Amino acid sequence: MADSSRRFATLALWAAHPEGSGEKDVALPIHHSVNFAYEDVDEWLDVALGKRPGHIYSRNTNPTVRPLELTMRALDDAEECISFSTGMAAISNTLFTLLVPGDRVVAIKDTYGGTNKIFLEFMPRNNVEVALCDTLDFEEIEAEIRKGCKVLYLETPTNPTLKVVDIERLARVAHEHRGIVIVDNTFATPVNQRPLELGADLVVYSATKYLNGHSDAMGGILSGAKDLVDQVFHYREINGAALHANSAYMILRGLKTLELRIQRHNESAQRIAEFLHDHEGVEAVYYPGLPDHPNHDIARRQMDGFGGMLSFALPGDFDQVKKLLPRLHYSHNAASLGSVATLVGPPRVTSHVELSMEERRAMGIPESLIRYSVGIENVEDLLADLDSGLSGL
Ligand SMILES: *Cc1c(COP(=O)(O)O)cnc(C)c1O
Question: Which of 67, 336, 380, 382 is the most exposed place for a label (fewest CB within 10 A)?
Fold first, then answer.
Protein backbone atom coordinates (compact mmCIF):
# COMPACT_ATOMS: atom_id res chain seq x y z
CA MET A 1 0.00 0.00 0.00
CA ALA A 2 2.65 2.49 1.04
CA ASP A 3 3.68 4.81 -1.76
CA SER A 4 7.36 5.53 -1.25
CA SER A 5 7.41 7.93 -4.21
CA ARG A 6 5.72 10.49 -1.96
CA ARG A 7 9.05 11.16 -0.19
CA PHE A 8 7.38 12.73 2.85
CA ALA A 9 10.45 12.69 5.07
CA THR A 10 12.52 14.46 2.39
CA LEU A 11 9.88 17.08 1.70
CA ALA A 12 9.30 17.71 5.42
CA LEU A 13 13.00 18.55 5.82
CA TRP A 14 13.65 20.46 2.63
CA ALA A 15 10.46 22.03 1.24
CA ALA A 16 10.77 25.22 3.30
CA HIS A 17 14.46 25.90 2.90
CA PRO A 18 15.15 29.04 0.92
CA GLU A 19 17.38 28.78 -2.15
CA GLY A 20 20.43 31.00 -2.37
CA SER A 21 24.06 31.23 -1.40
CA GLY A 22 25.84 32.06 1.83
CA GLU A 23 25.29 31.01 5.39
CA LYS A 24 21.93 29.37 6.06
CA ASP A 25 20.06 28.25 9.12
CA VAL A 26 19.76 24.47 9.27
CA ALA A 27 17.06 24.92 11.91
CA LEU A 28 14.95 27.87 10.80
CA PRO A 29 14.87 30.73 13.35
CA ILE A 30 11.80 31.93 15.23
CA HIS A 31 10.86 35.43 14.12
CA HIS A 32 9.17 36.97 17.13
CA SER A 33 8.89 40.37 15.50
CA VAL A 34 5.35 41.60 15.02
CA ASN A 35 6.34 44.08 12.29
CA PHE A 36 9.10 44.31 9.69
CA ALA A 37 10.92 47.53 8.86
CA TYR A 38 11.92 48.84 5.42
CA GLU A 39 14.52 51.54 4.71
CA ASP A 40 13.32 52.02 1.17
CA VAL A 41 9.70 53.20 1.02
CA ASP A 42 9.33 52.01 -2.58
CA GLU A 43 10.32 48.51 -1.52
CA TRP A 44 7.88 48.69 1.39
CA LEU A 45 5.14 49.75 -1.03
CA ASP A 46 5.95 46.88 -3.40
CA VAL A 47 5.72 44.36 -0.56
CA ALA A 48 2.48 45.96 0.64
CA LEU A 49 1.05 45.63 -2.86
CA GLY A 50 2.23 42.03 -3.15
CA LYS A 51 4.58 42.89 -6.01
CA ARG A 52 7.60 41.50 -4.23
CA PRO A 53 7.93 38.89 -1.48
CA GLY A 54 8.30 40.05 2.10
CA HIS A 55 6.55 40.44 5.39
CA ILE A 56 4.92 43.52 6.93
CA TYR A 57 2.83 42.49 9.91
CA SER A 58 2.60 39.09 11.58
CA ARG A 59 -1.18 38.88 11.62
CA ASN A 60 -0.89 38.62 7.84
CA THR A 61 2.37 36.77 7.24
CA ASN A 62 5.48 35.93 9.25
CA PRO A 63 8.87 34.49 8.19
CA THR A 64 8.57 31.53 10.59
CA VAL A 65 4.96 30.78 9.79
CA ARG A 66 5.42 30.80 6.01
CA PRO A 67 7.98 27.94 5.94
CA LEU A 68 5.49 25.78 7.83
CA GLU A 69 2.84 26.58 5.21
CA LEU A 70 5.26 25.78 2.39
CA THR A 71 6.10 22.45 4.02
CA MET A 72 2.46 21.46 4.41
CA ARG A 73 1.80 22.63 0.86
CA ALA A 74 4.45 20.17 -0.30
CA LEU A 75 3.20 17.29 1.89
CA ASP A 76 -0.35 17.81 0.64
CA ASP A 77 0.88 18.37 -2.93
CA ALA A 78 -1.41 21.40 -2.93
CA GLU A 79 -1.42 24.65 -4.89
CA GLU A 80 -1.54 26.73 -1.71
CA CYS A 81 -1.54 26.36 2.06
CA ILE A 82 -2.20 28.71 4.97
CA SER A 83 -2.12 28.24 8.73
CA PHE A 84 -4.25 29.25 11.72
CA SER A 85 -4.03 29.58 15.48
CA THR A 86 -5.97 26.30 16.02
CA GLY A 87 -7.67 23.57 14.03
CA MET A 88 -11.06 25.08 14.81
CA ALA A 89 -9.83 28.44 13.47
CA ALA A 90 -8.93 26.71 10.18
CA ILE A 91 -12.33 25.04 9.99
CA SER A 92 -14.44 28.04 11.04
CA ASN A 93 -12.54 30.53 8.85
CA THR A 94 -12.96 28.21 5.87
CA LEU A 95 -16.67 27.61 6.42
CA PHE A 96 -17.45 31.26 7.17
CA THR A 97 -15.55 32.38 4.06
CA LEU A 98 -17.21 29.96 1.66
CA LEU A 99 -20.78 29.85 3.02
CA VAL A 100 -22.92 32.99 2.85
CA PRO A 101 -26.62 33.44 3.65
CA GLY A 102 -28.78 31.41 1.29
CA ASP A 103 -26.14 28.70 0.72
CA ARG A 104 -26.55 25.04 1.56
CA VAL A 105 -23.92 22.78 3.11
CA VAL A 106 -24.03 18.97 3.21
CA ALA A 107 -21.98 17.26 5.92
CA ILE A 108 -21.72 14.03 7.85
CA LYS A 109 -23.08 13.74 11.39
CA ASP A 110 -19.83 12.43 12.85
CA THR A 111 -17.71 15.53 12.44
CA TYR A 112 -15.46 16.74 15.27
CA GLY A 113 -17.51 18.23 18.13
CA GLY A 114 -16.53 21.84 17.45
CA THR A 115 -17.27 21.48 13.75
CA ASN A 116 -20.63 19.95 14.56
CA LYS A 117 -21.44 22.99 16.72
CA ILE A 118 -20.69 25.29 13.77
CA PHE A 119 -23.18 23.36 11.67
CA LEU A 120 -25.89 23.13 14.35
CA GLU A 121 -25.54 26.47 16.10
CA PHE A 122 -23.73 29.09 14.02
CA MET A 123 -24.55 28.27 10.39
CA PRO A 124 -28.35 28.39 10.83
CA ARG A 125 -27.93 31.80 12.54
CA ASN A 126 -26.24 32.96 9.33
CA ASN A 127 -29.09 31.64 7.24
CA VAL A 128 -27.04 28.79 5.84
CA GLU A 129 -29.04 25.60 5.37
CA VAL A 130 -27.32 22.55 6.86
CA ALA A 131 -28.01 18.94 5.85
CA LEU A 132 -26.32 16.57 8.31
CA CYS A 133 -26.34 13.03 6.96
CA ASP A 134 -25.74 9.60 8.40
CA THR A 135 -21.98 9.27 8.04
CA LEU A 136 -22.07 5.88 6.32
CA ASP A 137 -25.25 6.31 4.28
CA PHE A 138 -23.51 7.42 1.09
CA GLU A 139 -26.77 7.25 -0.89
CA GLU A 140 -28.41 9.69 1.51
CA ILE A 141 -25.39 12.01 1.24
CA GLU A 142 -25.62 11.88 -2.56
CA ALA A 143 -29.35 12.60 -2.45
CA GLU A 144 -28.73 15.63 -0.21
CA ILE A 145 -25.98 16.86 -2.55
CA ARG A 146 -28.47 16.75 -5.44
CA LYS A 147 -30.83 19.04 -3.52
CA GLY A 148 -28.17 21.78 -3.56
CA CYS A 149 -24.64 21.85 -2.21
CA LYS A 150 -22.29 24.80 -2.07
CA VAL A 151 -19.98 22.85 0.24
CA LEU A 152 -19.66 19.12 0.98
CA TYR A 153 -17.86 18.72 4.30
CA LEU A 154 -16.35 15.34 5.22
CA GLU A 155 -14.04 13.95 7.88
CA THR A 156 -12.46 10.49 7.82
CA PRO A 157 -11.66 8.43 9.78
CA THR A 158 -14.17 9.84 12.26
CA ASN A 159 -14.10 10.36 15.99
CA PRO A 160 -14.54 8.21 18.07
CA THR A 161 -15.73 5.12 16.18
CA LEU A 162 -13.31 5.36 13.23
CA LYS A 163 -15.87 5.29 10.43
CA VAL A 164 -14.33 5.62 6.98
CA VAL A 165 -16.04 7.82 4.40
CA ASP A 166 -15.60 7.23 0.64
CA ILE A 167 -14.06 10.56 -0.41
CA GLU A 168 -13.68 9.77 -4.11
CA ARG A 169 -17.29 8.66 -4.58
CA LEU A 170 -18.83 11.62 -2.76
CA ALA A 171 -16.46 14.22 -4.25
CA ARG A 172 -17.45 13.08 -7.74
CA VAL A 173 -21.14 13.67 -7.04
CA ALA A 174 -20.48 16.99 -5.30
CA HIS A 175 -18.51 18.23 -8.30
CA GLU A 176 -21.35 17.29 -10.66
CA HIS A 177 -23.38 19.77 -8.62
CA ARG A 178 -20.59 22.35 -8.42
CA GLY A 179 -20.01 21.78 -4.73
CA ILE A 180 -16.70 22.57 -3.02
CA VAL A 181 -15.38 19.48 -1.23
CA ILE A 182 -13.61 19.95 2.13
CA VAL A 183 -12.08 17.05 4.09
CA ASP A 184 -10.81 17.14 7.68
CA ASN A 185 -7.70 14.94 7.43
CA THR A 186 -6.55 15.32 11.06
CA PHE A 187 -6.72 11.62 11.98
CA ALA A 188 -4.98 10.34 8.85
CA THR A 189 -2.38 13.05 8.06
CA PRO A 190 -1.00 13.29 4.51
CA VAL A 191 1.19 10.26 5.18
CA ASN A 192 -1.85 7.98 5.39
CA GLN A 193 -4.40 9.76 3.21
CA ARG A 194 -4.35 12.53 0.62
CA PRO A 195 -7.87 13.88 0.08
CA LEU A 196 -6.78 16.26 -2.72
CA GLU A 197 -5.72 13.23 -4.81
CA LEU A 198 -9.10 11.66 -4.11
CA GLY A 199 -10.96 14.68 -5.47
CA ALA A 200 -11.29 17.10 -2.54
CA ASP A 201 -10.77 20.81 -3.23
CA LEU A 202 -9.61 21.67 0.28
CA VAL A 203 -8.11 19.74 3.18
CA VAL A 204 -8.10 20.98 6.78
CA TYR A 205 -6.12 19.82 9.81
CA SER A 206 -5.88 20.37 13.47
CA ALA A 207 -2.07 20.69 13.50
CA THR A 208 -2.39 20.34 17.29
CA LYS A 209 -2.61 16.57 16.78
CA TYR A 210 -0.24 14.45 14.65
CA LEU A 211 1.35 17.27 12.61
CA ASN A 212 2.87 18.78 15.75
CA GLY A 213 2.73 15.44 17.51
CA HIS A 214 4.12 16.38 20.92
CA SER A 215 1.16 17.91 22.80
CA ASP A 216 2.94 21.26 23.06
CA ALA A 217 1.56 23.54 20.33
CA MET A 218 -1.81 24.30 18.79
CA GLY A 219 -2.41 25.17 15.15
CA GLY A 220 -4.55 24.66 12.08
CA ILE A 221 -3.81 24.11 8.39
CA LEU A 222 -5.78 24.62 5.19
CA SER A 223 -4.38 23.33 1.87
CA GLY A 224 -5.84 23.07 -1.61
CA ALA A 225 -6.93 25.02 -4.66
CA LYS A 226 -5.24 28.42 -4.70
CA ASP A 227 -8.30 30.50 -5.58
CA LEU A 228 -10.18 29.06 -2.59
CA VAL A 229 -7.28 29.21 -0.12
CA ASP A 230 -6.63 32.83 -1.13
CA GLN A 231 -10.25 33.72 -0.32
CA VAL A 232 -9.93 32.15 3.13
CA PHE A 233 -6.58 33.91 3.66
CA HIS A 234 -8.23 37.26 2.98
CA TYR A 235 -10.83 36.48 5.66
CA ARG A 236 -8.17 35.25 8.09
CA GLU A 237 -6.12 38.43 7.71
CA ILE A 238 -9.14 40.36 8.96
CA ASN A 239 -10.51 37.77 11.36
CA GLY A 240 -7.08 37.58 12.97
CA ALA A 241 -6.76 33.86 13.78
CA ALA A 242 -3.09 33.80 12.75
CA LEU A 243 -0.63 31.17 13.96
CA HIS A 244 2.07 32.40 16.36
CA ALA A 245 5.69 32.05 15.23
CA ASN A 246 6.57 29.94 18.29
CA SER A 247 3.82 27.45 17.50
CA ALA A 248 4.80 27.44 13.82
CA TYR A 249 8.35 26.52 14.86
CA MET A 250 7.11 23.69 17.07
CA ILE A 251 4.85 22.29 14.36
CA LEU A 252 7.58 22.59 11.72
CA ARG A 253 9.87 20.70 14.05
CA GLY A 254 7.18 18.05 14.55
CA LEU A 255 6.74 17.63 10.80
CA LYS A 256 10.37 16.59 10.42
CA THR A 257 9.51 13.27 12.05
CA LEU A 258 5.92 12.98 10.83
CA GLU A 259 6.53 10.09 8.46
CA LEU A 260 8.60 8.17 11.02
CA ARG A 261 6.04 8.74 13.73
CA ILE A 262 3.06 7.80 11.56
CA GLN A 263 4.75 4.58 10.44
CA ARG A 264 5.20 3.67 14.10
CA HIS A 265 1.65 4.74 15.05
CA ASN A 266 0.28 2.61 12.18
CA GLU A 267 2.25 -0.51 13.12
CA SER A 268 1.54 -0.28 16.83
CA ALA A 269 -2.16 0.50 16.41
CA GLN A 270 -2.59 -2.51 14.12
CA ARG A 271 -0.93 -4.79 16.69
CA ILE A 272 -2.98 -3.37 19.55
CA ALA A 273 -6.25 -3.52 17.60
CA GLU A 274 -5.64 -7.20 16.78
CA PHE A 275 -4.72 -7.94 20.39
CA LEU A 276 -7.86 -6.25 21.75
CA HIS A 277 -9.99 -7.88 19.06
CA ASP A 278 -8.95 -11.33 20.35
CA HIS A 279 -9.10 -10.40 24.05
CA GLU A 280 -12.01 -11.92 25.94
CA GLY A 281 -12.18 -8.88 28.22
CA VAL A 282 -13.07 -6.60 25.30
CA GLU A 283 -16.49 -6.41 23.70
CA ALA A 284 -15.74 -4.56 20.45
CA VAL A 285 -12.81 -2.89 18.72
CA TYR A 286 -13.09 -0.07 16.21
CA TYR A 287 -10.08 0.16 13.89
CA PRO A 288 -10.13 0.47 10.08
CA GLY A 289 -7.17 -1.90 9.76
CA LEU A 290 -9.19 -4.85 11.07
CA PRO A 291 -10.63 -7.01 8.25
CA ASP A 292 -14.03 -7.08 9.97
CA HIS A 293 -14.25 -3.27 10.22
CA PRO A 294 -17.36 -2.33 8.19
CA ASN A 295 -15.40 0.07 5.96
CA HIS A 296 -12.16 -1.90 5.73
CA ASP A 297 -12.39 -2.08 1.91
CA ILE A 298 -12.75 1.69 1.51
CA ALA A 299 -9.93 2.24 3.96
CA ARG A 300 -7.65 -0.11 1.99
CA ARG A 301 -8.43 1.77 -1.19
CA GLN A 302 -8.05 5.34 0.03
CA MET A 303 -5.48 5.08 2.83
CA ASP A 304 -1.79 4.11 2.79
CA GLY A 305 -1.95 3.24 6.48
CA PHE A 306 -4.79 2.90 8.96
CA GLY A 307 -3.52 5.37 11.52
CA GLY A 308 -2.83 5.47 15.23
CA MET A 309 -6.38 5.96 16.51
CA LEU A 310 -8.59 3.15 17.74
CA SER A 311 -11.37 2.70 20.23
CA PHE A 312 -12.73 -0.26 22.12
CA ALA A 313 -15.71 -1.07 24.29
CA LEU A 314 -15.65 -3.05 27.51
CA PRO A 315 -18.40 -5.44 28.49
CA GLY A 316 -20.56 -3.64 31.04
CA ASP A 317 -21.01 0.02 31.73
CA PHE A 318 -19.00 3.15 32.46
CA ASP A 319 -17.91 1.76 35.86
CA GLN A 320 -15.65 -0.64 34.01
CA VAL A 321 -13.96 2.29 32.27
CA LYS A 322 -13.42 3.98 35.63
CA LYS A 323 -11.76 0.79 36.86
CA LEU A 324 -9.55 0.22 33.84
CA LEU A 325 -8.06 3.66 33.23
CA PRO A 326 -6.20 4.02 36.55
CA ARG A 327 -4.72 0.55 35.98
CA LEU A 328 -2.96 1.63 32.76
CA HIS A 329 0.55 2.96 33.33
CA TYR A 330 1.58 3.95 29.82
CA SER A 331 -1.28 6.25 28.90
CA HIS A 332 -2.33 9.70 30.01
CA ASN A 333 -6.01 10.05 30.82
CA ALA A 334 -6.39 13.17 28.73
CA ALA A 335 -8.31 14.80 25.93
CA SER A 336 -6.83 15.23 22.45
CA LEU A 337 -4.86 12.76 20.34
CA GLY A 338 -1.95 12.24 18.01
CA SER A 339 0.85 12.68 20.51
CA VAL A 340 4.06 10.68 20.82
CA ALA A 341 2.69 9.55 24.21
CA THR A 342 -0.36 7.28 24.40
CA LEU A 343 -3.53 9.13 25.38
CA VAL A 344 -6.81 7.57 26.50
CA GLY A 345 -10.13 9.26 26.87
CA PRO A 346 -13.66 7.89 27.12
CA PRO A 347 -16.01 9.84 24.79
CA ARG A 348 -18.40 9.77 27.78
CA VAL A 349 -15.98 12.22 29.48
CA THR A 350 -14.46 14.00 26.48
CA SER A 351 -16.06 14.62 23.08
CA HIS A 352 -19.56 13.42 23.96
CA VAL A 353 -19.81 14.55 27.58
CA GLU A 354 -22.68 16.95 26.92
CA LEU A 355 -24.94 14.35 25.36
CA SER A 356 -27.42 12.15 27.18
CA MET A 357 -27.01 8.40 27.33
CA GLU A 358 -29.81 8.04 24.77
CA GLU A 359 -28.13 10.49 22.39
CA ARG A 360 -24.84 8.64 22.66
CA ARG A 361 -26.62 5.36 22.01
CA ALA A 362 -28.33 6.83 18.93
CA MET A 363 -24.86 7.79 17.63
CA GLY A 364 -23.59 4.25 18.17
CA ILE A 365 -21.31 5.22 21.05
CA PRO A 366 -21.34 2.64 23.88
CA GLU A 367 -21.09 4.03 27.44
CA SER A 368 -18.04 1.83 27.96
CA LEU A 369 -16.17 3.08 24.88
CA ILE A 370 -12.53 4.07 25.32
CA ARG A 371 -10.64 6.01 22.69
CA TYR A 372 -7.00 5.04 22.58
CA SER A 373 -4.50 7.25 20.75
CA VAL A 374 -1.56 4.91 20.31
CA GLY A 375 1.76 6.57 21.06
CA ILE A 376 5.24 5.64 19.87
CA GLU A 377 6.20 3.75 23.05
CA ASN A 378 7.56 0.22 22.65
CA VAL A 379 4.48 -1.69 21.52
CA GLU A 380 5.26 -4.67 23.77
CA ASP A 381 5.03 -2.32 26.76
CA LEU A 382 1.65 -1.03 25.59
CA LEU A 383 0.35 -4.57 24.98
CA ALA A 384 1.51 -5.75 28.40
CA ASP A 385 -0.02 -2.66 30.01
CA LEU A 386 -3.40 -3.29 28.39
CA ASP A 387 -3.25 -7.00 29.13
CA SER A 388 -2.56 -6.55 32.84
CA GLY A 389 -5.14 -3.77 33.09
CA LEU A 390 -7.85 -5.82 31.42
CA SER A 391 -7.10 -9.08 33.21
CA GLY A 392 -7.75 -7.48 36.59
CA LEU A 393 -11.26 -6.28 35.79
C1 LIG B 1 -8.90 18.39 17.53
C2 LIG B 1 -9.63 18.35 16.23
C3 LIG B 1 -10.10 19.53 15.64
C4 LIG B 1 -9.97 20.88 16.30
O5 LIG B 1 -8.64 21.27 16.40
P6 LIG B 1 -8.08 22.27 17.56
O7 LIG B 1 -6.65 22.41 17.20
O8 LIG B 1 -8.34 21.61 18.87
O9 LIG B 1 -8.86 23.54 17.42
C10 LIG B 1 -10.74 19.41 14.42
N11 LIG B 1 -10.92 18.22 13.81
C12 LIG B 1 -10.49 17.08 14.36
C13 LIG B 1 -10.72 15.79 13.65
C14 LIG B 1 -9.83 17.09 15.58
O15 LIG B 1 -9.41 15.96 16.14
Answer: 380
